Amino acid sequence: MTVTCILCEDSFVPTSIQAKKIRKHPHRIFLCPACHERVAKKAKESPHLIQVKPSLPHL
Ligand SMILES: [Zn+2]
């Protein structure tokens, strides 16, 4: 099974944990390990620009 990364459009083989998540949530967006690392790095540098896991304020 391969997944296509939305950023570089490369296909990669997901880890068994990722594969489970993909089967549960097939419409979720997945990044290849390289892009995931890049996004995580960017998010650390400028957390206000990219939020990998947006947290909602308590209502
Ligand atoms: Zn990628």
Automatic annotation (TrEMBL):
It holds the Pfam family DUF2197. InterPro entries: DUF2197 (IPR019241). This is DUF2197 domain-containing protein. It comes from Marininema mesophilum.
